[in-house]
Amino acid sequence: MTTRIMGTGSCLPQTVVTNDDLAKIMDTSDEWIRTRTGIRERRLAKEETTSFMCCEAALRALEDAGMSGEEIELIIVGTLTGDYVTPSTACEVQAKIGAKRAVAFDVNAACSGFLFALHIAHAYLQAGIYQNALILGAETLSKIMDWSDRSTCVLFGDGAGAAVLKRDERGVLSFDMGCDGAKGHVLSCKGRPNNNPLVSHPTEPEFVHMDGQEVYKFAVGRVPKSIQSVLAQSGMDAGDISWFVLHQANIRILQSVAKRLGVSEEKFPISLDHCGNISAASVPILLDEMNQKGMLKRGDKIVLSGFGGGLSWGSVLLEW
């Protein structure tokens, strides 16, 4: 027995913000953003919150799986932009979808968050502790961006993606997970500083800081190795894989990974052009888009891979 994805769902904010829209408020252009990143537009939240988008994505995944919230036993949300420090986003989802039986918690592995949630849920299911799970990746990254920093803020968007998992005879075949905390500060966002009777700090908000070149070098070096690891564990090579569903960070990263694996870029679907980088939500949103378009066929071998803040990475090989 292993863990199988039974249904997918996603939710994006209603408001579309194009590169031309950003050019009206900062020194940039559609050509500058598009040629460097592959991004043409992204969705930014107005009334939507992280938990709202999670709940919408969760309900759609449950419908796709033919299940109700009451049946779910475990909920894990990968996010770094929850609405509250506590309660967790997962507990918010549990309440709103009526998953009264479910244990619920968040994990923060940044852009690898959905893969970490999948790995954790898989372990629970394989141990026989739970029979099913709902996992999500969700971010409202727009609230932690410095919108005067054109080198960073133009990359990111908001949204949520979800998947329903069950114990089954087909599904997950192999995992590769890892972290390099020594290089973590090349992509960071500070939390609240100490503020107590002994020390006081101003409470100005902190924003995401990124060394783009270092993140790029990490991704193009580590991701192919991670994918090769899950292939080797299952005795397969890249030619056996129908789709490589990767975190949507930058089109140049996707092209480099495809080249290093010796695989056609046609096997690397993208949502980057119309979603931007949504950190933990990128992989499940793209997977749901593919599912809704009928691109995923029973028996397809698929690689999912997330990578980013931490620095962290995670890849899984599964049979659809």
From TrEMBL:
Record pathway: Lipid metabolism; fatty acid biosynthesis
GO biological process: fatty acid biosynthetic process
Subcellular location(s) per record: Cytoplasm
EC number: 2.3.1.180
Residue intervals of the Beta-ketoacyl-[acyl-carrier-protein] synthase III N-terminal domain: 105-181
Molecular functions (GO terms): 3-oxoacyl-[acyl-carrier-protein] synthase activity; beta-ketoacyl-acyl-carrier-protein synthase III activity
GO cellular component: cytoplasm
InterPro entries, per database record: ACP_syn_III_C, ACP_syn_III_N, FabH, Thiolase-like
UniProt keyword list: Acyltransferase, Cytoplasm, Fatty acid biosynthesis, Fatty acid metabolism, Lipid biosynthesis, Lipid metabolism, Multifunctional enzyme, Transferase
Pfam families according to UniProt: ACP_syn_III (PF08545), ACP_syn_III_C (PF08541)
Origin: domain of life: Bacteria
HAMAP family reported in the protein's UniProt record: FabH
NCBIfam families reported in the protein's UniProt record: fabH (TIGR00747), PRK09352.1 (NF006829)
Family the entry assigns: Belongs to the thiolase-like superfamily. FabH family.
UniProt note: domains: The last Arg residue of the ACP-binding site is essential for the weak association between ACP/AcpP and FabH.
PANTHER family in alphabetical order: 3-OXOACYL-[ACYL-CARRIER-PROTEIN] SYNTHASE, BETA-KETOACYL-[ACYL-CARRIER-PROTEIN] SYNTHASE III, CHLOROPLASTIC
Name of the protein in question: Beta-ketoacyl-[acyl-carrier-protein] synthase III
